[in-house]
Amino acid sequence: MLVHPEDMLPSQWLGPVVTLCHDQVLMMADRAHWDDQAALCRGAFCFMVETSTRQTALRLDQPPSHHEVRTDRLLLLRLLDFPPWPDASSGVRERIDTLMQRHSGSHAPHSELMLVRFFVLGAFYRDTPPALSHTPRFAGEPGHLLHADRYGVFAPTPRMQDLLINGTVTADQRIRFGLLRHDESQVYQQHPVTSCLSMLDIRGRRTAMFGKTRLGKSNVVKLLVQGMMDVTAERRDVGQLIFDVNGEYANSNPQDGADNIGSVYADRCNLYYLSEGKIGGPNSQLLRFNFHERPEDAMTTLRELLPADVAESDYVRPLLSCRLPGLRFNPDESADVVQRRLRKLMIFWTVLHHAGFEHDEARLTETLQAHGYIQPFNPGFNQPLRLSAYQAVNGSSPPPQPRTFADMVAEISLMLRFSLSYPNDPTLRKQGSFLFDADEEIMAHFIYPQAGAGAYVLRPATPFHSPRVDNFITEILATVDQGGTVIVDLGSANERIIRYFAKTLSSAVFLHQEGKFVRNEMAGRYVQIYFEEAHMIFPPNAGNVIDVYSRFAKEGAKFNIGIVYSTQSPSTINQDLLAQTENFFIGHLSSQNETTILSTVQYAFRGMEEDLMRSRTPGFMRALTASHRYPVPVQANRYDGKTLLMR
């Protein structure tokens, strides 16, 4: 039974229906009685019932009895406006006059009555037989409608309001999200009705937050992060990755008056910082790239970290095109091949040294020896070449073979200068081939250019390098796999750096999950990624260009990847992603263009454009999740670090 007797008390009766169609309902109400319904504003929910017998004549002043009403089905209405009184010659006016006679036995003054227009959102109904499900179903269209005489409208009681906003929400993994609120007044606090969210609607899905700054988007994201951690406290089957663009998830903000996520859940969070001054607890570390130990990714990383005008300059572009090997090698390879590969890395390390990148000799020695390199810093140049090079460049005999990083840099630098100054020296050739390959020659010209700024042009990337860190991507993937939460604090970074780390980690997560899918290793585990200020991260729509964010939109669900992204405007988001988004949390939008885009992408927001532009209360959101078929106006709870889990 959907409609209970207490939902049909005279105090909740609004009036009979004058006209109805599949989209709209026109109802007549007693003005004095309507004035008592303080909670009924534009956009408010009401419900319409159907009487079971044709002989029932609904009165303006009296609701139908419970036994006359079909209780397994109700129609959900949203209040639109109060239309003017119709002309005397219209069919609607004749219908009104008939209802007025039922009310008073005569033609009452029009001033005592009013018309109210509603939009029909759909219909709630029970499965047949009812035992199949305790959860009501919702249809987005009202289905077969009878004559208007058979319908009457009620204001919802708190019990009915709970049904209307929570009835179809998945029962598992619920959190208390906020309170039902139809307008910016404080009426909603008189009879508070809790609005719930199921984290199953968020997990593995795409969720958008739109609204102007300081109106509650980040607060809602915090509630979702907290909710996901609370519902997975035992299972640990959802790992989370947060790109903290403003530093508010990893750092406490006095303005918000609550401890940050990273400190409240310190045992489940790993924090990565760009700024050394923020490193504090045992679960925090620097977000750095080790160029010495990850040479195979170094050029791609430099291209992203350097300013665009530097990376695309004629001087730097050839360097970034070089291909470098990794530290590992196949033990079946010949000693000469292994030595040449190591020498190429040494030339790259020399480039880094000239550009001012710090090195850790002890760590690099240990790493190279662990990979099987017996003489880590010996380039292996033959003695005739060393004699010729040192004599030509320094006018001296060669020193002992290099044993330290500094010795290696000195010898590599001298050999590169020698190869540039004396390219035809026979000692630079072996079996007819030049000693250095094309990439090594490019690096030589980069260190000793005939025209150019010098290696120091790479210095903008040095703040993001550390010779004492492991592969942060591997570490983050491992944490997420174990159901942990990783917060990447990018609060001090510019847009270029934010985009680099977001794209790098997003691509790594996607490939990691895709690999698990191919190997059938998903095991019901999910990854949830959060993007603050998404307009800085997601590229504009680029037609047929496929990037990792487009793949999130189209394939993320298959690989158990969910994303939550927030920004001010729908128009700034990748259109592929926006079109595939299931959950929306919408605050204040000031532009009609933005509301039009939103209602175009998500039909459920059509007709709410004016409301979205008028309301500006912080935390006042219209929420539409996978469990909902229509937006629910909610005053979101304020994040305070306390669990919102429903027991």
Short account of what is shown:
This protein has 647 residues and is an alpha/beta fold. Helix content is 31%, strand content 18%. Residues 193-267 form the Helicase HerA central domain.
What does this structure look like?
Strands 9-8-21-20-19-10-18-17-11-16-12-13 form a 12-stranded mixed beta sheet. The protein is built from 20 helices and 21 strands. It has 3 domains: 5-168, no CATH class; 196-287 and 470-636, P-loop containing nucleotide triphosphate hydrolases (Rossmann fold, 3-Layer(aba) Sandwich), CATH 3.40.50; 295-464, no CATH class. By secondary structure, it is α/β, with parallel strands linked by helices. β1 and β2 (24-30) form a beta hairpin. InterPro entries: HerA-like, HerA_central, P-loop_NTPase. It holds the Pfam family DUF87. Residues 193-267 form the Helicase HerA central domain.
